[in-house]
Amino acid sequence: MKNLTVEAARPYQVHIGSGVLAALLDEYSEMISKADRIAVIADETVATLHLDHLKAHLMNSDKVKFKVIPSGEQAKSIETYMDCQSFLLEQGFSRKSVILAFGGGATGDLAGFVASTFMRGIPFIQIPTTILAHDSAVGGKTAINHELGKNMIGTFYQPAAVIYDTHFLATLPEKEVRSGMAEVIKHAFISNEAWLDELLAINDFNKLGEEELALHLERGIAVKAAIVEEDEYETGVRKYLNFGHTLAHAIEAASGYGKITHGEAVAIGLAYALYLSEHKKFHQFLEWGKATGYPFDLLEKIPFEKLQSYMKKDKKTADGLLNFVLLHETGKPYMETVGTGQAEDAYTTLCATIGEMHI
Ligand SMILES: NC(=O)c1ccc[n+]([C@@H]2O[C@H](COP(=O)([O-])OP(=O)(O)OC[C@H]3O[C@@H](n4cnc5c(N)ncnc54)[C@H](O)[C@@H]3O)[C@@H](O)[C@H]2O)c1
Ligand SMILES: O=C(O)C(=O)C[C@@H](O)[C@H](O)[C@H](O)COP(=O)(O)O
Ligand SMILES: [Zn+2]
Fold first, then answer.
1. Domain CATH number, residue 56
2. Are 296 and 268 in contact (CB under 8 A)?
3. Where are any strands of DSSP class E within the chain?
4. Last residue of a domain, one of 127, 150, 171
5. Fewer beta carbons below 10 Å: N end or C end of the chain?
6. Candidates 107, 109, 136, 141: which one to mutate for ligand 2, based on the most atoms within 8 Å of Cβ?
7. How many domains does the chain have?
8. Last residue of a domain, one of 171, 195, 227
9. Is 242 a catalytic residue?
10. Residues in contact with ligand 2 (CB, 6 Å cut-off)
11. What would the pLDDT profile of 89-116 be if each residue is shown by its tens digit?
């Protein structure tokens, strides 16, 4: 098992390894057993596949209550948020209670937001179950979506711990593996060329061994943790973690939340940002995306005007100007304001390139 401390204002540990859940629940048993109530918030799919396993290692007590929420982006709705708050109130939760977020990034973002606002904040532990959640479970961004923009309502609220048992990843469908690997390669692009080259050499995610995957997740977590430690509240360098996201979030909102996975949208956003950066690996990244099955062709199905209206509401936008994370080179991100004309030209060229490459 690997352990990493995130030195945020309130430091916490990220534990990662295969089959580590039981030992770690034991490690946090004092915090959990001291709570007057414990809510396990799990999405439907994860509950069906893995809740029995979690239950087997959790204390068997009436204090533990289970709240099953819809799978995917539907979890990040105001309705699910209010449903969870009502559940906590009805079940007698108090300021001495704890929440366990059991699922992928959608569950973690929702449960974190619930925890950060219930009675002005109670502790929560992230128990992530997706590859993508190596990113979402660390760093303390919580959120729900608004029809006008992704993650528009949320807080910065760090978890008390992250218990990442990679055993759960075995049941992920291929689409979700692909989605998660987009955030892994994002972390590589903003940090390390040699690691990036290793990832670009993968042409079939099915061939990724468990140990190899765990190594990539650990590297991604280390990159994220270092940036969060430097800039927890995103006044500066934390924006670099948003590489590819200005367009990605616009695609997710414009196509309807959940129609395309977050990671698939991020992959398209990365291609766009690489083009704008005139990055030497732009074409290589498109080839990699083609081999590994990212749906780049979805981009041309959404008119630029629609994307632009969402991008103008991006959290990095100021005074109506589009601000993108770009790369001088791998590992050297910077912020750049891009004019509407240039943004539209880049969209048109990217769509044409994707068309020519038949992806
Ligand atoms: N807070 C952050 O810093 C941050 C970072 C990145 C992404 N995000 C957010 O995270 C969300 C995406 O996270 P995600 O990709 O984990 O999505 P998700 O939570 O929607 O999970 C994806 C799908 O996989 C299923 N699933 C989860 N674990 C499974 C398992 N072990 N086996 C089989 N199926 C499983 C889920 O039920 C869901 O249908 C987005 O909303 C994104 O905005 C947040
Ligand atoms: O942790 C961060 O900071 C990130 O930007 C990580 C992103 O991968 C993630 O999708 C995040 O939720 C985006 O945040 P937002 O502030 O742009 O909504
Ligand atoms: Zn993301």
1. 3.40.50.1970
2. yes
3. 2-6, 12-17, 38-43, 64-69, 98-103, 124-128, 141-146, 149-156, 161-165, 322-329, 332-338
4. 171
5. N
6. 141
7. 2
8. 171
9. yes
10. 135, 139, 141, 143, 150-151, 183, 234, 238, 241-242, 245, 315
11. 999 999 999 999 999 999 999 999 999 9
